[in-house]
Amino acid sequence: MPYRKEKFENGDIVHVILRGIDGNIIFRDKDDYFRGIFSIYELNNLKPTEVRVRRRIRIQFKKTNNCGGRTSATFADKRERMVDILCFCFMPNHIHLLLKQVKDNGITEFMRKIGTGYGGYINRKYKRQGHVFQSSFNAVKITTDEQLRIVVAYIHTNSLSLNYPKWKEIGIENPQEALDFLKESKESKWSSHLDYMGIKNFPSVTQREFILDLFGNLKKYQEFIEDYICWKGNPKE
User: Fold this and answer.
1) pLDDT for 27-53, tens place per residue?
2) What's the pLDDT tens digit per position in 154-168?
3) Domain of 138?
4) Is 6 within a domain?
5) Helix, strand, or coil (residue 148)
6) Is residue 37 part of a domain?
7) How far is it, in rounded angstroms, from Cα 162 to Cα 32?
């Protein structure tokens, strides 16, 4: 299961990357993606949860998340969170998470639970054994506001590589096309980007106020993402 020797302090903001062992695919279909996103919601909890309660939560979660902007119901949140999930992006063989620790040892314990919980789901579903994730997750502590803005944009544009391989090296001819991909494609929906665009996708998962305060508002966030794509997508300029 994923672990990290270093200790994080409460209030630390950390960019975490969790990869499938040997580069293996960890999300093979839509159900896997949805289960993974539900897992980072459900397992971010110091309180133990009975199986029957977990099933009820999963049904409620599905009704009030990932509804293409049509969600109006309020999702009851009775968890005692270990971390604030500021943003995330799920890729076929790895996960990006931007976490703020709010409980002692929160990041390390949260990642341990993800390895056990989602890893167990994958092993049961695909009748396999052994570790699903690499034994150690990558973690970079964020120390400045500028670094934080960049890492949010980096995480939320990560799925562009699925449609524009090596876009940061060779550029993107049409940035608007890339923005549309992030907003409308089925490949890019497994992230918190849409929720930051004001489109309800997985609104229960993230705590967005801190990041939105950093950018100023939704419009300034959107402008920063566009500028980031134009900057990274035109490395020779």
Assistant:
1) 999 999 999 999 999 999 998 765 555
2) 999 999 999 999 898
3) 13-232
4) no
5) helix
6) yes
7) 18
State the sign of the Cα–Cα–Cα–Cα dihedral 89, 182, 193, 217: positive
Whole-structure pTM value: 0.89
pLDDT of residue 217: 92
133 by DSSP, 3-state: which? strand
pLDDT at 225 over 80: yes
3 assigned to some structural domain:
no
Count the Cβ atoms, other than its own, within 10 Å of residue 117.
17
The CA distance from 34 to 165, in Å, is 24
DSSP element (H, E) containing 27: none
Of 211, 12, 204, 17, the residue nearest 111 (C-alpha): 17
CATH number at residue 163: 3.30.70.1290
pLDDT at position 74 over 70? no
Overall number of domains in the chain: 1
Q: Is 79:47 a contact under the CB 8 Å cutoff?
A: yes
Residue 201 domain-assigned (yes or no) = yes
Cα-only R_g, the chain: 17
Q: How far apart are CA 36 and CA 33, in angstroms?
A: 5
Single-letter code of the amino acid located at 15: H
